[in-house]
Amino acid sequence: MTDSVARTAEIAGAGFAGLTAATALAQRGWRVRVHERGEQLRAEGAGIVLWGNSLRVLDDLGVTPDLRANAMVPPHYETRMNNRIVSQEALEGIRWSTQTRPHLFQVLLTAAREAGVEVIAGSTVTGATPDGTVTFGDGSRATADLVIGADGVGSAVRDSLGIPFARERARDGITRFLVPRRKDELAALEPDTDWDNVIDFWNDDEIGLRVLYTPCNDDELYIALMAAAADPRGSRVPIDLDLWTSTFPQLAPVLKDAAAIAGKYYGYQTSRLDHWTRGRVAVIGDAAHAMCPALAQGAGCAMTNAFTLAEAVTAASVDGLPEALEEWERVERPLTDRTQTRSQWYADTRSMREGGQFVDDSVEMALYDPTDPRRHEEQYA
Ligand code: 5PR
């Protein structure tokens, strides 16, 4: 980019996708504003697993030391069926990290601000047009060289552009909590267990409940409680403590903490858009490709695509930006499509309970390096 006047970007949504795109653009000389409709800047949700693809993006943004300060790399991903260990995967050769969503959010927000991004809370984007105009809830407008809709699964930017999409709901859903680790109490209940592992507790005795146990640091534990949407007891919030504790007795202390939180049950869904861009507008993250969480790549794909978009538009001319966006979608989208399809397959079949699943196709996205300029040569061709 050689223009003497900074190019401008208006971004709807201060989530992981929007903040990643904003930071990458600002670090490349763009003048960037991010609009968050919430009055508070904060992350929704509990914990998150990040894989090599998004960790490489964070490396490039320069935030890896900040992220690591409050994250961990568990020794194994352990899978259990009816409390028998099915597999313990060391995930050798696969970079990963567990952390809370609030921590990742703060890291990205800090990076965005340090790069000069203006993040505006309480600013609702109601739509955009292909020429780069955004409209706001108060009726005002702005124009920019680039507009990004990173405004989530219910994206106003996507809908205002009239981009057709298909949505598929899966049978399962999940309630997610951040609770204290309670290491001593858990160790007392099950001394032989390595409670630093991620432990994927499956059960097929009755209705197929599952608890995904993910330590995020010394103090905080992410637990995700999965049940079918059609199961009224399993999907109830606040959680049915008797049901969950009788199925997973060794988790009693942390389930008790979860039961004290209101909680929200999220049904899994996949959405696929006809196209991710129109003119000077692109949609990223859940606005573009909501996916089942089985492969833990929803935010990972979002950050990957946010980063590659920033690079693609920076390399383009201002006039050539719409074509550059189309080309970006053409080269980057197929891997996200495959990741969505696989994640939905795992959700539909529940076959992660067979263990040993982090191999071959299921880790294609985890091993992808969006910061490698040669990534579309030979091996990914
Ligand atoms: N992995 C992670 C996760 O949070 C979920 C799943 C897998 C890290 C649920 O949110 O299979 O649903 C899953």
Structure commentary:
The protein has a domain at 8-72 and 101-167 and 268-363: FAD/NAD(P)-binding domain. The protein has eleven helices and 18 strands. It has helices at 16-27, 52-61, 64-68, 101-114, 156-161, 183-189, 241-247, 252-259, 286-289, 298-315, 321-349, and strands at 8-12, 31-36, 47-51, 77-81, 84-89, 96-100, 118-121, 125-129, 133-136, 141-143, 146-149, 165-180, 198-202, 210-215, 220-228, 265-273, 277-278, 281-283. It has a seven-stranded mixed sheet with strand order 5-4-13-14-15-12-16. A six-stranded mixed sheet has the order 7-2-1-11-18-17. The protein has a three-stranded antiparallel sheet with strand order 8-9-10. α1 packs parallel to α10 and α10 (298-315) packs antiparallel against α11. The longest helix is centred in the C-terminal third of the chain and has 29 residues, at 321-349. The two termini are 27 Å apart. It binds ligand 5PR. Ligand 5PR binds next to loops.
